[in-house]
């Protein structure tokens, strides 16, 4: 005879595992987006600094 409580527990474990896998995938995507935003921010700062340097060097002495 099959124990229905064991089947239920196994189903719950499977559901929990699937949920955790999806949650982990979302966390990885969020981390990658945060890293991309940080890199874009640094690139933007570099571009601003380059523009300021170009302007400064274009000033007559």
Name the features.
mainly alpha; single chain; 61 residues
Total strand segments = 0
The structure class reads mainly alpha
Give unreliable regions as ranges.
none
Most strands sheet: none
Mean pLDDT, all residues: 92
Q: Note the gap between the termini.
A: 95 Å
One letter per element, helices H and strands E, the order comes to H
Share of β-strand residues: under 5%
Give the count of helical stretches. Answer: 1
Shape: rod-shaped
**What percent of the residues sit in helical stretches (DSSP H or I)?**
over 70%
Radius of gyration: 27 Å
Structure description:
The protein is built from 1 helix and no strands. It has one helix spanning 4-58. It is rod-shaped and about 90 Å long.
Indicate the topology.
Elements: H1 4-58
In short:
The protein is mainly alpha-helical. The protein is built from one helix and no strands.
